[in-house]
Amino acid sequence: SAVISQKPSRDICQRGTSLTIQCQVDSQVTMMFWYRQQPGQSLTLIATANQGSEATYESGFVIDKFPISRPNLTFSTLTVSNMSPEDSSIYLCSVDGTATEAFFGQGTRLTVV
Amino acid sequence: ILNVEQSPQSLHVQEGDSTNFTCSFPSSNFYALHWYRWETAKSPEALFVMTLNGDEKKKGRISATLNTKEGYSYLYIKGSQPEDSATYLCARNYGGSQGNLIFGKGTKLSVKP
């Protein structure tokens, strides 16, 4: 299994500012994933981050709003840029695990005021 | 979009009650169905991954069944305990990667002592 450390665990931010969320894995992984859960909604995939290449974004998500870094096989960051109250969500990173499951960080609970 | 639907949205039961939740999904191009247990401020914990029609899996008091032809899965909890209180998520793959998942909105279970 993979142990994933995600931080910060929570934050309250002013609208118009940016927040960078970090995700550290205890082993090398090929793909890392960033999800968002808005209040009352499903966990939704934002993007897939591969080391050495640009992240692949899902429909409705763009790099300017959610820039992602993947400098090595154990680390990734997601930035939520120019925040508005609609960005208030739980953000989760995850990695491919065994053939049977994915592993998740503890999540970042973001409130934008 | 391969929507995943879960019901009920929330459930309140007494300690000792048995309960079940439903997950429905489009049956076409099925790859795998996942169940996760998510407690507040913790990482989602994988419960089951099921791939074959008719699969039944069990972990302690929790079990799950899968019908890929009609597109549904049931999660059962026998003799609910307060520590079972959590949000139960189901998700399906739309590709080979275990991390690339489409989630339902979850069923929030509260077990009263």
Notes on the structure:
The complex is a heterodimer of chains A (113) and B (113). With 113 residues, chain A is mainly beta. Chain A has no helices and 11 strands. In chain A, the strands form 2 sheets. In chain A, strands 2, 4, 5, 6, 9, 10 and 11 form a 7-stranded mixed beta sheet that branches. The model of chain A has no long low-confidence stretch (mean pLDDT 93). Chain B has 113 residues and is mostly beta strands. Chain B has strands spanning 5-7, 10-14, 19-24, 33-38, 45-50, 56-59, 62-67, 72-77, 86-93, 101-103, 107-112. In chain B, strands 2, 4, 5, 9, 10 and 11 form a 6-stranded mixed beta sheet that branches. The mean pLDDT of chain B is 92. The A-B interface holds A 4, 9, 31-33, 35, 40-45, 48, 92, 94-107, 109 and B 4, 34, 41-44, 46, 49, 89, 91, 97-106.
- Assembly state (oligomeric): heterodimer
Which word captures the global form of chain B? Answer: globular
Number of helix segments of chain B? Answer: 0
Number of strand segments of chain A: 11
The mean pLDDT of chain B is 92
Identify low-pLDDT runs of chain A.
none
Largest interface: A-B, 29 and 20 residues
SS-based class of chain A = mainly beta
Q: N- to C-terminal separation of chain B?
A: 40 Å
Strand content of chain B: over 45%
The helix fraction of chain B, in percent, is under 10%
Helix residue percentage of chain A: under 10%
Percent range for β-strand residues of chain A: over 45%
Q: Averaged pLDDT of chain A, please?
A: 93
- Separation of the first and last Cα atoms of chain A: 37 Å
Biggest β-sheet description of chain A: 7 strands, mixed
- The number of helical runs of chain A is 0
Give the helix/strand layout.
The complex is a heterodimer of chains A (113) and B (113).
Chain A: E1 4-7, E2 10-13, E3 19-25, E4 31-37, E5 43-50, E6 56-57, E7 68-72, E8 75-80, E9 89-96, E10 102-104, E11 108-112
Chain B: E1 5-7, E2 10-14, E3 19-24, E4 33-38, E5 45-50, E6 56-59, E7 62-67, E8 72-77, E9 86-93, E10 101-103, E11 107-112
Parallel strand pairs in B: 2-11
Antiparallel strand pairs in B: 1-3, 3-8, 4-5, 4-9, 6-7, 7-8, 9-10, 9-11
